[in-house]
Amino acid sequence: MKVGVLAVQGAFAEMEAYWRAQGAEVFEIRQRADLERGMDMLALPGGESTVQGKLLKDLGLFAPLKERIDGGLAVFAVCAGLILLAEKIEDPGSRDATRPETWFGVLPVTVRRNAYGRQLGSFRTVGMFDGQPDVPMTFIRAPAITAVSPDVEVLSTFDGAPTAVRWRSITAFTWHPELN
Ligand code: GLN
User: I want to staple 24 with a disulfide (CB 3.0 to 4.6 A). Which of 19, 31, 105, 130 is the partner?
Assistant: First the structure.
């Protein structure tokens, strides 16, 4: 499988290492020309969604990636990546909540950024993921998923709220599976 990892900001090195360890062929997406390589799956790493959204626009990556995602490209999204995909961001004070053109807005969920607090609100836990017990879960300035549409499959929860979801060809996490 050929995986394109968005590598403009954030934890892309960890994402690349993770997919290489799964035997995937991995390449970095840093500029438009990188998209010509073609991919079976797009991986959106954790980081700062506001920065990533801005860079996606500035680098001319936003529109071509959105077209591929809307067209059904498989996407594996972590944390900031999930925020970029979410249809709604419930974050009234946030600049990006008022600028929907800076995120993909395709995944029918609502997210609240930095829902557990900022850096000091980061934590680890262990839980059930997709029927598998004892999966380590690392939350780093994580968002919370506060609403999902009925056709979204919930793969894990924390305190009763969804923390990983699958919808069509998109799998998205509020925690960082690639770190464990
Ligand atoms: N707090 C970040 C944001 O709102 C996400 C953090 C992460 O990706 N681990 O974009």
Answer: 19
Residue 121 has pLDDT above 90, yes or no: no
Q: Is 101 an active-site residue?
A: no
Q: Cα-atom radius of gyration of the chain, to the nearest Å? A: 15
| 176 included as an active-site residue | yes
* Residue listed under structure tokens 């994580």: 142
- Does residue 102 have a pLDDT over 80? no
| Domain range list for the chain | 2-179
Closest C-alpha among 163, 180, 5, 178 to residue 75: 5
Which residues does residue 124 pair with via DSSP β-bridges, in sequence order?
A: 138
Catalytic annotation on 79? yes
How many angstroms separate the alpha carbon of residue 132 from the centre of ligand 1?
25
Please tell me whether the overall predicted TM-score, pTM, comes out greater than 0.90 for this model. Answer: yes
Interstrand relation of 153-158 and 86-89 (parallel, antiparallel or unpaired): unpaired
The CATH architecture that domain 2-179 belongs to is 3-Layer(aba) Sandwich (3.40)
Instruction: Decide: 6 in ligand 1 pocket, CB within 6 A.
Output: no
Non-local (6+) Cβ contacts of 130 within 8 A are 155, 156, 164
Pairing mode, strands 161-167 and 153-158: antiparallel
